[in-house]
Amino acid sequence: MQTYSRITGTGSYLPPRRVTNDELAAEMATRGLETSDEWIVERTGIKARHFAAPDVTSSDLALEASKNALQAAGLQPTDIDLIIVATSTPDMVFPSSACILQNKLGANGCPAFDVQAVCSGFVYALSVADAMIKAGTARRALVVGAEVFSRIINFNDRTTCVLFGDGAGAVVLEASSEPGILASDLHADGSHVGILCVPGNVSGGQVLGDPLLRMDGQAVFKLAVGVLDKAARATLAKANLTESDIDWLVPHQANLRIMQGTAKRLKLPLDKVVVTVDQHGNTSAASIPLALDHAVRAGQIQKGHHVLLEGVGGGFTWGAVLLKM
Q1: Measured over all CA atoms, what is the biggest interatomic distance in the chain, rounded to whole angstroms?
Q2: Each residue's pLDDT tens digit, 305-322
Q3: Which H, E and C letters describe 134-145, residue by residue?
Q4: Which residues, at least 6 apart from 156, have a Cβ–Cβ distance to it below 8 Å?
Q5: DSSP designation for 273
Q6: How far apart are CA 257 and CA 221, in angstroms?
Q7: Taking a C-beta distance cutoff of 8 angstroms, is the pair 255, 221 a contact?
Q8: From the candidates 99, 161, 282, 294, which is the catalytic residue?
Q9: Any catalytic annotation for residue 119?
Q10: Which pLDDT belongs to residue 233?
């Protein structure tokens, strides 16, 4: 009998500090930078975001999201036999945030590793976990997206510092006789490294290069809408489904305009698009599982629904996963 994987629990966590556009604008004004709630909302759709306290790491956020996902699945940490964390802001150079999370959960012994595909990270990690379950090397996987992007934001660049926030989202993926993850489509094109990157590294105890985020917003926008549309259609084709079969689109929460553009190309009404970017900002690899959990707990996404997840991020990476809840 063929083995599939299904999502049996979702969870998320946001750090308590919520920063509105007005608060961020006031803080930026102390640096001599001008912005406003109206300017930010008009260009991005973002109204607020959450920032972690200085001593809070990605694995701390991941821990809370994981506990919520495990509770939803009715499992204990020791029931998990695979942990994958998607993050671009790990706790340290090594070991992985997944290993640190594993220890905090008390689930030591199973494979644990990070996936780094920036904002596409969760889609990548979910695809890897699905493949491992189908191959029989895991039965119950914890897949997490966790970020503290506030640590790598350049608060002297008003075009980028207003976009990002911190948070974590998680899912429990279990082996099943019924299809859950129906298809996926992953891509990367390293020729676009320069349009979205943090070009710094550690050498000899010093930071070399620039350890803060750089982005060519217009280039990212133009590339994102096109590649997301192609990935979505390729994923649907692999599952022998069409756009009309999609009950919900859960896109990476980067920018409301990109999300609207993607939905328009897929001929999806906006009321089928899960939107949390207005309250969370862009939480990179955490954004899709955060939005998924929000929609599940709000009663929007229900058992039996076809849900399309899609993300695009630095690398340049992109991809989509189609699942049946």
Answers
A1: 64
A2: 999 999 999 999 999 999
A3: HCCCCCEEEEEE
A4: 31, 33
A5: B
A6: 9
A7: yes
A8: 282
A9: yes
A10: 98
Question: Does the pLDDT of residue 283 top 90, yes or no?
Answer: yes
The H or E element that residue 61 is part of is helix 58-73
Instruction: Express each pLDDT in 147-192 by its tens digit.
Output: 999 999 999 999 999 999 999 999 999 999 999 999 999 999 999 9
Is there a catalytic annotation at residue 99? no
| Averaged pLDDT for residues 8-12 | 98
DSSP for 135-186, please give it.
Answer: TTS-SEEEEEEEEEGGGS--TT-HHHHTTB-EEEEEEEEEEESS--EEEEEE
pLDDT at 133 over 90: yes
> Which residues are CB-contacts of 90 (< 8 A; sequence separation ≥ 6)?
58, 96, 97, 114
pLDDT score at 20 = 98
69 beta partners: none
Catalytic-role residue among 119, 161, 192, 197: 119
Q: Which of 21, 99, 192, 252 is catalytic?
A: 252
Structure token digits, residue 19:
């920063």
Give the side-chain half-sphere CA count within 13 A for 111.
15
Pairing outcome for strands 48-51 and 17-20: antiparallel
CA dihedral for 293, 294, 295, 299, sign (positive or negative):
positive
What pLDDT sits at residue 1? Answer: 82
Tell me if residue 85 falls in helix, strand or coil. strand
Contact predicate 316/193, CB 8 Å: yes
User: What gap in Å lies between CA 210 and CA 21, rounded to an integer?
Assistant: 26
What is the per-residue DSSP string for 30-51? TTT----HHHHHHHH---EEEE
- Clarify whether 282 is annotated catalytic: yes
With a CB cutoff of 8 Å and minimum separation 6, the contacts of 152 are 88, 89, 198, 211, 212, 213
Q: CA-CA distance, 66 to 145, in Å (whole number)?
A: 10
